[in-house]
Structure formats: C-alpha cells, structure tokens
Queue: 3 jobs
Job 1
Amino acid sequence: MMKVSLFATCLIDMFQTNVGKATVELLERLGCEVDFPKNQVCCGQPAYNSGYVKESKEAMKNMIKAFEHAEYVVSPSGSCVTMFKEYPHLFEGDAAWHEPAVKLADKTYELTDFIVNVLKVEDVGASLNGKATYHSSCHMTRLLNVKKEPFTLLNNVKGLEMENLENSHNCCGFGGTFSVKMGQISEQMVDEKVGCIAKTNAEYLIGADCGCLMNIGGRIERKGQPVKVMHIAEVLNSRR
Amino acid sequence: MSMKIGNDQFKKRVDDGVNNAFMRFAVSGAQERLRSRRLDAAEELGNWEEWRALGEEIRQHTLENLDYYLEQLTDNVAKRGGHVFFAQTAEEANEYIKNVARQKQAKKVVKSKSMVTEEIHMNAALEELGCEVIETDLGEYILQVDDHDPPSHIVAPALHKNKEQIRDVFQEKLSYKKTEKPEELALHAREMLRKEFLSADIGITGCNFAIAESGSISLVTNEGNARLTTALPKTQITVMGMERIVPTFEEFEVLVSLLTRSAVGQRLTSYVTALTGPRLPGEVDGPEEFHLVIVDNGRSAILGTEFQSVLQCIRCAACVNVCPVYRHIGGHSYGSIYSGPIGAVLSPLLGGYEDYKELPYASTLCAACTDACPVKIPLHELLHKHRQRIVEKEGKAPISEKLAMKAFGLGAASSSLYTVGAKVAPAALTPFMSGSSISKGPGPLKAWTESREFPAPTKERLRDWFDKRSDDGERKHSK
C-alpha cells in the first residue's frame, strides 16, 4: 500500500475542509494509506511572496521537519506544492537545510500529478452530471508544469461535460497578498475571469488551487452568479 | 529619473487606467492578437525552447563580456570613420547630441523609434536648443502630434488609442479631413512626414542591436522610416543602451528571429537594416557623418547584481502582451516609459524606488511574463527580488505589514501557536459573518471584501476531523 502524507495547506485546514476530506477519501479509495502530519502549518508563501524571506524560512523549516518521515507528500494545491519545490533553491548553501529541502521537494506531488503519474490512474471512477469549466491556475501550469493531468482526469468523469474557458491563460487576480494590496486591480482581473466563466454557461467551475477558488468563488458569490465552485478533489470524489 | 511620465501617484494612475474603457478595450484586443501571433510564430520554428535557450545564452555571454564587446564595437565604428561617445548619464548623452546639433546648426531633426531616447528625454533637450524634432515612427508620430502623449507600450507606443481617437487627433492638429480608415490615416502621416525627411539636418535612430565584429548598428522596423532617417540627412546619430550589443552577425540572426517573432509574430519585419559608419568615398547614399552614443544611465550598476538578467532584454514586449495586470491598467499606470512586467523590474532599477516602489507589487507573480520571454529573463522572480529588497534593505514596507509578517513567521513555524490562532480566528470573525461567509471584513480583509465574499473559517479544522476519524477507525478495529 502506498503511504501518502497529506500536505493540507492552511487554507484547506481552516476554510476549505471539504476539499481536504475529499482528498483523503479519494486517495484512500485509490489504495493509499493517508496520514496527516500534525506539525504542518503553512508553506510560507504568503510571507515569501510579499518579500519577507526571513520570516517565511521559519515556516519552511517547520514544514521540512513535519514531513521528514513521509514517503510521498501530496497536496490538493498546485501553488503550495510549487513553494515546496522552491525550497532547495532557497536553502542553497545552507549546510543544515539544503539536503532535507531537496528531499522534501523530490517527494512532493500535486494531487492530479500524483494520481496520473505516480498511481498511473486516469479514470478514478467518479461521476458528476452537468456542464463544467476548468480554471488552470498559474503556478500549477507555468511553474509546476502540471497542465494536462487535471483534464485527463476530468474527461473521464462520467456525466461531466467540459467547456473551454476563454482566456484561460490569464491569472484570476488572486496572487496572495496582491488581492488585498492591489485590491482594485485584483477586482478587475477576477471580474473578467468570472465573466468568461459565465459565458461558458457552465454549472460548475472547477479548479485545483484553493487560493484561486476562494478568489473566483468569492466574486461569484458576491455577484450572485449561479455557478457552483468545486475543487477538483471534490469532483473526483463525487459518486452520483 | 527622466524616464518618468507625469507626476500622479500610483493610486491615481491606476484609477485613471481602470476607468478608461476605451484604453482597456484597445489593450485587451491588442494583447490577444499579439499573443496568438507570437505563439503561432514560435510554433512554426518547431523547437522554440531550444531557440529561447540559445537566445538566453547569447545574451548572458554578451553581458558577461560586455567590456570586451563594447571596446570591439567602439574600435570598429572608429575604423569605419564613425564617432563614438560613451555617456554615463542621460545629461551627458543629451549634451553630446546637442553639441552635434549646434555644430551642424541643425534646425530640424527626424527620428525613428527609440526607447532609450525617450528614457533620456532627448527630444526636450534638443527642443531647448531650438531644434524641431519629428518622430517618424507612425505610433510615435501620433503621440507627438497629440501634445506629446507618452508611450504606453515599448513596441506599439500608441496601443492605448483606437483608430477613431487617432482620427480625432489628426483632424484637430493636422487639418485631416478623411475617415478613421487605417490606410487613409497612414497615407496622411506619410505625406506629412515625407517633407520632413527631405528637409531634415540630422537623423536620429535607436539601435536594436549593435554588431561588435563589424561596428554596425541594426534597425528592425516595419515602416521604412528608419531607412529614410538614415539615408537622407547628412548627419546620423544613433543612440543605444550599452547592453544592446551582439558579438557577430551569427548571434544577430538568432536574436532578430526571436525579436520579430516575439514582438509582432512575424518571421521577419519588413526591414532589417545593418548600417556601418558614414558614407565612404564611392558610396551613393548614407550620411556624411555618423555618431554612436552609447548610454549607461544606470545600466552598469545593474551588472553583477542579482538583477543582471534584466539586461538580457531585447525589448520585444512579449511580457507586456501577456500581463494580466497591464491588461487592466494600461501602460501609463506604470508612470514610466517602460511598462508591463519588464517596466516593473527595470523602472525601479533605473529610476529608483522612491518613484517606483509600487511597481514590483503590481503583479500576481503569475509568471506569464517569464513564460513568454524569448531570452528567458525570470521576470516574476526579479519582481520578487525587488519586494525582498524593499522589505529588507529599503525599509519601505508599512509597519502594520511588518508586524503581521512577524506574527506569521512565529505562527507558521509552530503548530501549537497556529492552533491558538486558528481557534481564536472564528470567534474574532463571528461578528462579521453572515451565514458561511464574510461580506464586510475587518483589517486586511476589508480590501478583499470590497469586491468579494470571504469564507468563514469552518468550525472543525481538517486536522481535527482527521484526528477524530482516525480515533473512530482505531476503535472500530479494536472491537
């Protein structure tokens, strides 16, 4: 049995617990034994991206320790996985932390990448009726290079009809602290994204990053649009 | 700091940008066209990633040996009878150019497109002298006619204007009588400009790349105006940034292909010209006198730093054409002639943090720029390096943010402290909740909830659910 340590991310732990639950159930259904390393908190990205590298490194060291025992680390968040993958670069020249950082980066996978490329599963046996569109998040596609895997999995979900999203390459305007620091610009970006989603007439907006989904979902809710926002883990865990 | 445009604060500039529906419509349309053309042109080569790697290697090699190639270039220009001046500052460059104009008793100067002359505000310097300076690139000409509206894009300077606006400008300023048809507008500009070319005393150009091995300068254009600028006036002055250099024509060929494909999605532009020195005895055209002004203006201070890779830039604007922030705020919001991601990296380096401290934050770090760059400048990483420098060295970050980040550092480094915080948060946020979300948040949440709902923290954290579930599982097993 494959042993997987869940890297839940702070957003999922506190706000999107359903995504975490779906991830655990999905991985178990695919034959993995899942544990939740208790000392995990945050990957450090909010502070890191704002330029607070020193502060973020404390968070990173904590994560390296928390996942030391893990065989595989899997997370339903492309952006946070990207941060783990940056650790080796950030601890370059640090005798104590560089090697453990490399080890962590090497064994960490984004959820859909893990399912398709490690478990070698393309059809997880999920079913969900309706029309959906997918938001490709920036860090996951450009920095992590996980582009096709979500579509491979979604195309095999029974009953689900996928619609193309216009200008899907454009960022949704989340960007961590950008969303509050540059709120006005962020609003324009998310508004355009939500407009493109509306044009597809999809009932579901699916994504693989909780930051983006919180942003897009928050705008959809504010505008009262009839679109249900779902994380890909929830879709892949649907059995109806 | 002469690259600065206007004196408005960043917030005001963004306000103006966001509320300018005409500009936003023009910019988003142009972005989509330029992006898809670039992708097609890149795909046509078949091995784009190899080309990018080669482009990066050429630029890095050149920068690492810049002193050598600058010397070689200078020697070869001199051998062909040209004059070379190395200007450390914008003022030095302008002083030299003004001196040439004085010596020639120049009344009229025609110019082809050049960002570095914008950067040093050369036109204003020459105008002080009483020279008439005429932009001959169509985009730049439109802006000049429109009371010196600043460029909003490094390749397509008038990108923020649509054809109706251009028609109005021409009607008002040039007694233009025809329609907004691009052909008619271009023909009118052409007729106006032809007279200027014939009567100009000096032609001034920028330089896409100087070729060290031969002492040539190259111009990559679609309009032919640069050829007229360099063929008709008796004196030619070429102004270049000190990093715009290639060792030989072999590297030049690679970079031109990357440039034209990335900038406008063309295999080649209509004109790719390499000019070497003044007219020699027996030659039929070309200027009698040639001056090459090589501008530093802050560039050598970037060499050898963590920002060196920004000097790899070949000014194609591929990063600008994919930037989702530029898309909504337009070029003028950057407050610099260099806009978009490359501008957000370069402007604080050349112009200082005082004027440009917001620019590194005007990005979601989505990395679309890095992905698009034909010479692989890690633009989003450089934006991040600026943020780090602003926090750690410049001390320009707000105190409230510093405290919040300090708290983050503590909380995120210890799961027990995090647990305390996570337990307090739902209670602290309760007064702001309506159902499962927050519509009007306190503190930093305020900016979020101005346009979006914020989710309320769940009663049970995932880790607590997981714990309980494992306990239940163990109980079941032990029964």
Note: Chain B has a mean pLDDT of 93.
Job 2
Amino acid sequence: MKWPRVILLAVVVALGAWAWVALHPGPERLIRRRLDKIAQAASFGPNQGYLAKLSGAQSLADFCATNIDVNIDIPGRQEHRLAGREDVQQAALALRASVAGVTVTFPDATVVVNADKESAVADLTVEGHVAGEHDMIVQEVKLTLQKIDGQWLIVKAETVRTLK
Amino acid sequence: MIETKSGPGQERRSGNWLQIVAIGRNPKTTLIRAAVLAVVFVVVFKWMLLPVRVQGISMTPTYADHSFHFVNRLTYLWSPPKRGDVVGIRLTPPQGLSAPHIMYFKRIVGLPGESISFASGRVLVDGQPLDEPYEKGPCDWNTDAVTLGADEYFVVGDNRSMAKEEHVFGRAERNRIVGKALL
C-alpha cells in the first residue's frame, strides 16, 4: 500500500471515530452538555415580562426531579432549603422578581458517573454576576443527578464549603 | 545615459524587504518557529504558569483588587507548601491535568498536624502567636482551635480588618492547592 493511501485510510478512520463519539456521547459528556443548559436556564437578562420570567423559572425547574432537595448554606448568609420542583420554580421566580439580571456559568466542573451509569455526581464552581453589582459570586456546589425516563435530572443540590 | 533607481529591480527589492519583515527569509522556518512558539505559549500559560486576576479585597494590601498575577503550578511538584506562601486554591476537586479557571487566593498559616486558632486577631499555631509582617490592619477575630489533618493546610487572606463572616478562610486539602503565587 502506498503512503498516500495509508494517510487517507488513517484520516477516514479518525473521522469515523470522531463521528461515532459525537453521535454516541457517553454519560459524562451528556451531563456536561446538560450543565451548560442549566447555566443558561439559570441566567436571565433585565426587562423581562412576567410571562418570560415564569417561562424561565419553569425551564430551570424542568432540569430538576420532582422530589429534588436543595440546601444552600453560604457563610454569613441565611440558610435556605427547598424541597420539590415546585419550590425551585417559586424560588427562581422570586429571584427573577428581585434582581434585574443574573449571568451564571460553571467554569470548572468535575463529573463522576457511578458504576450503574444511572446516577452521577457533579462538583461545580458556580460563577454568578448580578446585574448592577461589582463583585461576582463564586461558590462550590455539588449536584447529584439521576437518569429518570432517559433524562439526567438533579435530585440533590447543595453548597459546599471549599475551606472547612 | 543616466540610470534611475526606480524600475522593476527596485520593485523586486522592495517586495523582498516586505516579505522578509512579514514572513522572514525562509517562510518554512518562520512557520515552524511560529508553531513552536504557539505550542510553548499554550503549554506554559495553560498548564504551568496560570494567569490570574484578583477579584475582591481579602488579600489586600499584599494583592490589590483587580491586580494581575501568575500561579506557578510547578512549585509544589517536588516540595510541599510552606507557611507564608500565597497559594491558589481550586474550588472543585481536581480531575486530570486541567487547570481551574477560578481559584481562591490565600496565604498558608498552618501546616499539617498543627492546631490553629485566632485570639484577639492573632494567629496562634499550637498555642504560640505567629509573626505575620504582611498583616497590617486591625483585627479582632477569635476562633476555636482546629487541628489540621495529615493532608490539610490552614489558609487565610491578609486583610483581617474585614468581618470574619465575610472572609473565606479555613482548612484546604493538599490536592486543592494549585500552586504558589508568582509576583
């Protein structure tokens, strides 16, 4: 076999492997894509009408399991506990009503899929910018996800104290 | 007959000069050099010397808000972190070689196995006050003593004049320490 053919074959094999991975992503990749969508759903801009706020809060709640448990404990601030998807939606709506806008990103994420491939834990650095505020909010958050009806949903979300 | 300097030869010389400035005498060599430089740049600033911009006042006056520095990830490959080092601490557990985008910037005041507390604003290490020339502001913090595990370091910012509740400090696991602050 001549060299050009070998190179062509190698390129075709590499492209095939890339296409296979792109079309059949593993659980970790699926979860990372999901995290990007969660960050987008948690962000909102100013001048939103009530229906847009309601829709935004609903889309964020759609990433949560019906029995989700949320525990937010940030030093120097009041502890918050939310139980169930409805609570999350109400809290998201209340946030949208109280601040002009928020931009949320997860710049660092560690995803560990459990052996059963049906549950996973994601450790995130949450970076939040509130419209009109100078300082950004940075917080470590741990999400427990479960595959329910083919979708990765959050069953537990809790803040983590990085420095104990 | 008098020859003028303008003409096809001059244009060719001018074209050569532009080519030398833009892509060098040998374009192939220039391309290889540029590629090597790009690779070195990416490797150094993505995995070794992480550029960081300070946000917040917890490390003032040593590091001002919005100042620009580097975190050297190679410092602790062969030696453990030392007391007094300013370090970058990642918020999420490490996974592979990837560098974090966001870090806490703090100073190490306690080493593994030591007992650390604050009494009237002074750091006590195993009950003895720590000399901290970098700490300038007034401080009235008081905390209970915590004993560090075999893999833990106690870190705190230099600005102790801010309220204790607004200042992030405490025990950091060794694997969360990314590297030492440079400059």
Note: Residues 27-48 of chain B form the longest helix (22 residues).
Job 3
Amino acid sequence: MVSSGIPSLDELLGGGYPERSAVLVTGPAGIGKEALGYHFIHSGLLKGEFCLYVTRLSLRDVLHDQRAFGIASTEKTPMWIARGGGQVELDMGSLPKLAGTIKELVERNKGRKVRIVTDILSSVLMLNPAEAVYRFADELVVALKEYDAVMLASLEDGMHPPSTQAAMLQLFDGVVEFSFQKTGLRLLSMVRVLKMRGAAPRQEYYTFSLADSGMHLRRAEERLQPGKTTPVEEPVQLSGGGPAPAPLFASQEARGVFDYLLRSFLTDYRSDRLSIEQSGWRTRVAISESTGIGMESFYGKGGKDGPVLRELISTGLVESRLFYGQRGRGGEVTKVRVSYEKELVKRLLERASRGEGEQS
Amino acid sequence: MMIASFDVLNIAAVAAVALILGYTAFWAARVRGALAVPAYRKQAMGIVLIASVLDLTLIGLTVSAYVVYGNAQGAIGNGAFGLFFVLLLTIFYWVDSSVMAARRSDPLSRDTLHWSKLRILLWIAIIPASAIVIPVDILTAGVASTGSPPSWTAPFLILGIFGPPVSGAVMLPLAARRAGDPAFRLHLRWFGLFALGFLAGNFLMNLQPDPVVALFSGYVASLAEAYCLYRSVLSLTPLESPRVAVAS
C-alpha cells in the first residue's frame, strides 16, 4: 500500500492507496479535494520518491493553496507540469502529447516509486470531446501500471453530464468522493471511499477538516448517513472480469440488463458474425424474458419507457431504436442495445471478450 | 392611531427583512467555513459582508429614526450615505473575489480583461474615494442634516458609487461565461436578482408620492432581495452531487 500522507485516511483505506493504482477524487469546487493531492505529494517527497504534479493552475496558485491548507514547504519539490512556473509548460490542446510527456517523465524515473497528482481532468473535458478524454485517461491508467506508480486525479462534480462522470468513475481503480451536506444549522464537508481496488465497498461518510496539523477524518454520525441514496457500490459483473468496475447504475436491475446487453452484443458479433450495425439489438420483451426482470421495468405508462430502461438510456451507454416492419403484420418494434460507439462500452466489450477468450 | 399602526407594521417589516439578512450572513459564514480553497472562501466572505452591512444599515437607521426623531422617516437621508458607501465597498470586494473564483473555474485560467492588474487600480481608486466621502459627509452633514456633501467630493462620489456596480456588471457576465462551474453561474443569477430587487426597491420608494406607501413598497422589495441573497449563498455549495441525485 502507498500512504496517502493523511493518517486517518490511511486507516480508512487499510494502509493507503493500492500499489500501481489510479484513484479519482471527485467533489464540488472549493471543497478541498486538492488537499488529498497536496498531502500525497508531500508525503512522497519526504520519502524521496519521484513526484509529478500536473496542474491547470500556475505554480504560484498551487503554492498559495498549499500554504492555505497548512502544508509546510519542503526542500524537495515535485516535477511540475503547470500553466506557468513549472519545469514543463502545460498544453491541454494535444492530449496524446500530454500523455506522452507524462509517460516519458515516468520512464526516466523507472525503478523509483512514482506519485502523480493531476487536476486537469475537468478542464480537458471542457476543452475536448469526452471520448478523447476517456482515451487519454484510460491510456494513462493502463500505462502507469507498468511502473511502480500511483496516480491521483481530481474531477469537479457538477461540471459534466452524469454519463461522463459515470464513465470517468469506471476508468479508475479507486474513487474518493467529497460532498457538502446540510444538517440543521450545520454545513458539513464529507468524504467517502466509493470504491478501492482490493477493498470491500464502503458507503459510510466521514466528516473532514483541514488544519495546520493536516487533514482529519471522523466517522459521520449515523443520522447523517444519507438514507435515501441507494447503495451503488455493487459493480457491473462482466464475464471477462478485469479491474474492479465502478458504480455505474443505481439499480441492480439496470446492472443486470446492461450486462445482458453486453453479452448479447458479443454473441451477435462474434458467434453469429453479424455486422456491428446489426449486433446486440434486443426487444424489451426478449430482455425481460432473458433477465427475469418484470416487463414494467421496460414499459412505462402512456407509452413511455419504464424506469430501468430510462436509467440505462440516461447514462448514454444504452440506446433504443424503432425497427419498422418487424412486428406481426409489418408493425414497428423498439429494440435496445449497448451504445457501441461509446469509448467506455468498447473497453468493456474488449475486457469481456478477453475474459471469454481466457475462459475458453 | 394611524401613525401607531404604521409604526408597528414598519417595525415588523424591518424585523422580517433584518432576520432574513441575518440568517443569510450566518449561512454565508457557514459556507465560508466549509469551503477550503481561499478563492471561494473570499467569495463567501463577500456575501457575509454584504448581508451584514445591509442588516446593520437597516437596523441602525430604524433604531436611530425612532430614538432620535420618533418616527420612521427622520434619518433616512444623509445618515444612510456613509453606510451606503460601506455597502458599495463590500460589493466591490465580492465582485473582485467572484472574478478571481471564476478564473479558477475557467479551464484556460484566463485573466479576463487583465483583472489581476485592473483590480489593483480599482482598489486604489475606490478605497480613497470612499474614505474621503464618508468622513466629509458625516462632518459636513451631521446627524440632523438632510443636505448634500460639498461639490468638490463629486468625482470621488461618482467613482465610489459607480465603480463597484459598473465593474461587476462588466466583469461578472464575462467571467461567468468563461467559468465552467454551474454553481458559480447559479450564484451569480441569484445575486443578480438581489441587485434587481435592490434597484426596484429604491425606484419604488422614489416613485411613490405617499411616504407610507413608498416605505412599504421598499420593504416588499427588500424582502424579495434578502431572499435572493440567501439563495445566492446556498448556491455556492451544491448539496447533492449529480451521481447521488441519479442514485436517489
């Protein structure tokens, strides 16, 4: 395990972040998720590890924030890729080039323990197509596993569509979520570990405070644990296994259907050798019969979609289309499949496909 | 009897507005405490100051009016002048901190209209303007006077009065367009409504020939503007993340 630099968080994580992992920190602007990165880098510097900080801010702004968070400056400094003042100037215009620069710097320090912190994900998501950012993040996450490296990336909550947010969560080995909660006359800053590779999912919230002595976590009172939130920790189970997937759907039914649609796509494309355009389409009745999930989950009142189908489509990972001339005497029928063109779906299919290959 | 009823209603209206403003200042302080990043903390501090100064102005004017003059209208003239300038200073503080916070949310961290330099010039100009006008106003007009400050203070007066709102009206829409933070935009929207309520209240008060009707029109607008300021504070800390919202 790699220490987070925050003793109470290490305790919560069972020693720290997993080796060779990428962890995503999400939360609203201003809540202090940067503190996790600052403490992580500070701790690495004290141990003499190679630390790389990739920031959309200027070096001056980051140092100002660090002081405000009570982090003492050390003689050793990290390698900076920053908008101004760093050893390398940040260029978010070309993500492959940026990924190449990061990998090159890590390669130069091969053999050492490496810590990387970045706060650029939200910015690059605003400046580039989401698919390009998924590719960038996934490429980094996969490439860094070849080194003794741990990466901590932060993502602003509320700035991106829920489907984008869900897709980003899926790519990382661990997710730490920050949020504000109002209770009576108090406004609390909360944190929870949504998932962490190799650890059992935990949903409990912790309040945290930032002080000169560091960041302190405290288990939130039971009554502050939001009861209305459906646990979302149970992952989509793909036949291919792979790294522990992230929470993507709120309901068990949606997870089951998504898994079924992925398998259906693979069956059509690989076993039945249909074209990509033809693969994976299933009627709602067929999905209901195959998954054992009631029809009311797919058919809503007044001709609308049912709740499970709505949830799936709202993520952007599943699509529906009308097929004409395929029902009875030439009527239309609605069919559903995974959105193959989505980068995340492609990757899930690849993993599932690899798994099937290994099993066979 | 008419006057007594009017006074009761007047005090009740003032108390209601003062309570909302006080609650707003309290929550703004809470929000400031919960935020960790200095840029956002300063923005919340701006609302603490605006709500507090408005509250103190309202309570101070009402109390002094009844204690010194025995009626509601006595001190609402020159006495409010000094406090009005303090309010403008706090508004400029909020404008400044909001533009800086917006820059932090901008993916390209753009320095809108060179604000990092322009703000220093504006502070250098606005603070002395207020520092000159307020004491001169108090010294020359005194508590009982309803006259105007001397003519030589006019340039300072113009700078002090128009500097904060004009800089805010120019800078904030630009900064909001560049910032990618919906919470920031929502905050600005509510603050804009607060500013509109403030202007509408003054407009209604000046429009009505009947002082009683004018005063109450002003209080209705004040209630609305106090509520908008409260909502602008709450919008600084989104309480539900989208992912949780999807799950609930």
Note: Residues 241-248 of chain B have pLDDT under 50 and may be disordered.
